[in-house]
Design goal:
Number of strands: 27
Helix content: 10-25%
Number of domains: 3
CATH superfamily of the largest domain: FAD/NAD(P)-binding domain
Distance between the termini: 65 Å
Radius of gyration: 22 Å
CATH topology of the largest domain: FAD/NAD(P)-binding domain
Amino acid sequence: MYDIKCDVAVIGGGPAGLAAAVAAKKEGAEKVLIIERDEKLGGILQQCIHPGFGLKLFKEELTGPEYFGRFVKEAKEIGVEALLNSMVLEIGDKEVFCINSKYGVTRITAGAIVLAMGCRERTRANIQIPGTRPAGVYTAGAAQRLMNRQNEMVGKKVVILGSGDIGMIMARRMTLEGAKVVAVIELMDFLAGLTRNRVQCLDDFGIPLMLSHTIVDIKGNDRVEGVVVAEVDANKRPVAGTEQLFECDTLLLSVGLIPENEITRKANIKINPITNGPEVNNFMQTSTPSVFASGNVVHVNDLVDNVSTESAIAGASAAKFAMGKLGGGDEITVTTGNNVRYVCPQKVSPNSDEKVSFYFRVLAPKKGVRITAKDGDNVLYTRKAIKVNPGEIEKVTVDPKGIKSLTVEVTEEA
């Protein structure tokens, strides 16, 4: 077994892992190691050639490669190391075990570990669409990789199921490459992704969005020949008699993302049932004190800038822990109030000296609302919002010093 020692080991070399590693190094960790299964750093952003990244963090619009390229450059300049072509199998007490293409079975001993494995797409098997099993059914991300990294056109007449951001971005991408996008079909009665992507990727290109609809059948033998679309009722069940056949040769699925937490569960780290990611405190520390987590492995973000911000906290905190500078103490569990699906981080120390940002998603879209964070009857944060939508993450920032409880809620203005 090949052995490596470091102060902070970061699992995953995407935007979360890169931001965490850079922050850990800047915080004073002597040796920071990124463990990445791909042959390059960058993660999913390698195939995201469209602009729209970095507006919050860098105050300018960048493509995916430009965005992660800045972090890769900085990481190399300050001495962050990377172990590429390495698949992590499990983590132990300050240990990471992986298979490396050069060294074989490898053990990394670290003062702290950061989980930054990202997420994966839900597939046709996850949502169980009836019909035949022809070629031409892809997840939106798989189609994006084929087109943007391997220069392979996946189809000419396309239907997209799900209004997630990747699906809407691929609707625009395929249109620009000459394909006909027949429609984007969404089960819910509201948009699943960012409003800006609906405007820039669907509305600007005249692509129809059909809310409260789903696909009930896939037609075709060797290749997709069409899909049957039906309206759904309030219980999300197809309404008989509303079926329509949409002829197409390709079906793209943009039906949700799943945080990659197999090794997290194997390590008996507490998982939040709503986010399907590890529960963390304001230091992005999991139920195992030496293990931190950030990015889409914790909860699925809508903006990479938020991923980088959260990951910088995780990396800096991991470095402090490895150097014995991160203290423990009592923690308060953050509770979800009216129309709030989840809040992250889920725990906070009332002894924290700095303000803490909490990210959350609402349960249902509403207009004219007030977002509030409070300790009992004491309001810690409040603001009005024109609208909220489950597809877009909201944020509150509070000073947790001395608080006894924390609840985040969204209420309609009178």
